[in-house]
Specification:
Length: about 250
């Protein structure tokens, strides 16, 4: 018999970069628990609409909101509107990210800036704009930031990406302390290698085989592996967990 879990019924969640990959899986996982999910997208409205349809099919209510997380004014305006449209915001998932890879000597200023601006400043912009709504959430608000194993271990050719993801951990622990007095929890989920468009673009077949040898659980992760961890941290049972980094990496880094 299927267990029906509607622990997020009545809660409003915003998932950045929700149009595909891990973000889409997170939207669906939150919807399965009954949440209203606002699917943020940067450019692909059609893909965000597809996610919204999956959210509805999974038992949640859906809305879409287009903005670039790197643009602080656009973030502020969009989140204000979400608050008005849905009567508040309970859960923010900072999932939007870009992997602009390249070796140090050839890495350009604009690549560095874009990496930091999307992956790190993007989460800061969203957290700042959402904070007053999260602090007023009926039950305690939640922020979940998607960092990366690479932010913890480093990786050749990914200095900017790793720096942005390491920074996201500092943002997580600091905001956890800053927002705790009102019960808002702030945690990070740190995925290992997950099968999505991002890894397909950057992980050739030979590198993939080599990587598999290093993963104790002997498989590349799937988006749902990450989404389940996020849905847990967003829920009432995780109310005493804050400032933590939950690794979802098959044992790649322990
Ligand atoms: P993806 O490339 O499929 O999805 C990234 C999403 O972010 C896309 O929907 C994209 O449109 C959105 N996005 C990018 N820039 C944006 C912006 N400026 N404003 C709003 N949205 C923007 O990649 P994937 O794999 O689903 O990644 C999701 C998150 O998980 C990212 O933060 C990534 O760094 C992280 N991650 C992924 C891992 C993997 O192995 N796939 C491993 C560790 C972390």
């Amino acid at each position: 018999m299927a267990i029906i879990d509607r622990a997020l019924e009545g809660k409003v969640a915003l998932v950045t970069g929700g149009s595909r990959g891990i973000g889409r899986a997170i939207c669906v996982a939150l919807a399965k628990r009954g949440a209203t999910v606002v699917v943020n997208y940067a450019a692909r409205r059609d893909a965000a609409d597809e996610t919204a349809a999956l959210v509805t099919a999974a038992g949640g209510k859906a809305a879409v909101s287009g903005f670039d997380v790197a643009d602080s004014a656009a973030v502020a305006e969009a989140i204000k509107q979400i608050g008005k449209d849905h009567g508040g915001l309970d859960i923010l998932v900072n999932n939007a990210g870009v992997a602009i890879n390249g070796l140090l000597l050839r890495y350009k200023d604009d690549q560095w800036q874009r990496s930091l601006q999307v992956n790190l400043a993007g989460a800061f912009h969203c957290a700042r704009s959402a904070a007053s709504l999260l602090l007023r959430a009926k039950e305690a608000g939640r922020i979940v930031n998607i960092t990366s194993v690479v932010g913890e271990s480093g990786n050749a050719g990914q200095a900017a990406y790793a720096a942005s993801k390491a920074g996201l951990i500092g943002l997580t622990t600091s905001l956890a302390k800053e927002l705790a007095s009102r019960g808002v929890t702030v945690n990070a989920v740190s995925p290992g290698f997950i099968d999505t468009d991002m890894t397909a673009e950057h992980l050739p077949e030979a590198a993939r085989a080599k990587l598999l040898e290093q993963i104790p659980l002997a498989r590349i992760g799937i988006a749902d592996d990450v989404a389940h961890a996020v849905a847990f941290l967003a829920g009432p049972e995780a109310g005493y967990i804050t400032g933590q980094v939950l690794r979802v990496n098959g044992g790649l880094l322990v």
